[in-house]
Amino acid sequence: MMRRVYLDYAATTPLRLQAKEAMLAALEHFGNPSSVHQYGQAARGLLDGARRQLADLLAVRAERVVFTSGGTEANNLALRGVMAKAPGQTLLVSALEHDCVRQTAAALAQSGVRVEEIPATAAGVIDLAWLTERLQRGDVALVSLMHANNETGVLQPVAEAAALAHAKGALLHTDAVQTVGHCVVEPDALGADLLTFTAHKFGGPKGAGALILKPEVAMLATQTGGAQERNRRGGTENLASVAGLAAALAAALEHLTRETEAALALAAYLERNLPAGVALVAPNSPKVPHVRQLRTPGRKGEDMVLKLDMAGVATSQGSACSSGRVQASHVLQAMGFDLTAAAEGLRLSWGWNSQPTDLAAALAAL
Ligand SMILES: Cc1ncc(COP(=O)(O)O)c(C=O)c1O
Fold first, then answer.
1. Any ligand 1 atom below 6 A from CB of 187
2. Does residue 209 have its Cβ closer than 6 Å to ligand 1?
3. Residue 188 needs a FRET pair 20 to 30 A away by CA distance; which of 78, 117, 309, 313 works?
4. Looking at ligand 1, which atom is closest to the CA of residue 10?
5. Of 204, 230, 253, which one is at a domain's C-terminal end?
């Protein structure tokens, strides 16, 4: 039988055992954390414990955690919530963002919010000179810049952008979906006023994420209802998912040194053994250990993904959300690739349960 290899961790990851066990234990508590009785109190205890654990792991106070249904919702809350409190001001969004930031910014622009795009350079990072100049002109309420790009793995200068934004009275939001659980990420060390992450990218369940925000951030709740999450996100909490999120991050950080070394070794192995005609995207830019984008000039990424899948190797063209649609990557286009070249990307990504033989199989198939 053909051995199947999964190299699409940037899309989603297998559930860690620790997360599964925490979720199964949480499922025993059916109480509503908002109820006064013993059932409610038990559920509340579990929720508060997971919140504290998560906050400790990110070096923030527990009140700063707003649980959401994942990265998409946290990004929506950050952009919509902050801009609702900043009428007449501008939102700056990088050209490299995931569609859940780009489309949210586009929807805000439709409703009258001033939105501008921060361009990127050929190295796959944002143009800091452009950002500096734009901030000088004033009127910016929020800068949204991802921590690492999900298609290329390239790390963005978030701390520098945050310092520039703060000097001009603007807030900084970072989508850290591809770094939390893969690197040491502390919102305060990055200077992020708002930080998004999601559990399923580091061995947690799908549909569970969080927005971490500074207490002084003025933000309007977008999901209104009950007073859950300190009035910042209404709705009965998804207790099992929250428990899985905290347990997955605890496990990821406990094994971070070993898993990072293993991921870097896989990256080095891939880069050393690339077949002729296959190029690494943004070869000289600092990247996360677990994501690499390749290009095969003359071959569509889409076709490569299908052929590799037939050979038993699961990869992706870029962002999972845009797979299934024939389209050129907006990330590669922002880096200066033309339409044809921007459709030739192939993303390989690995993680906590990957083996060197997985990369060897992918290279053989390539
Ligand atoms: C950079 C980035 N942001 C946000 C998301 C969306 O997160 P979720 O799937 O939890 O909504 C993804 C997932 O593909 C991502 O890669």
1. no
2. yes
3. 117
4. 16
5. 253
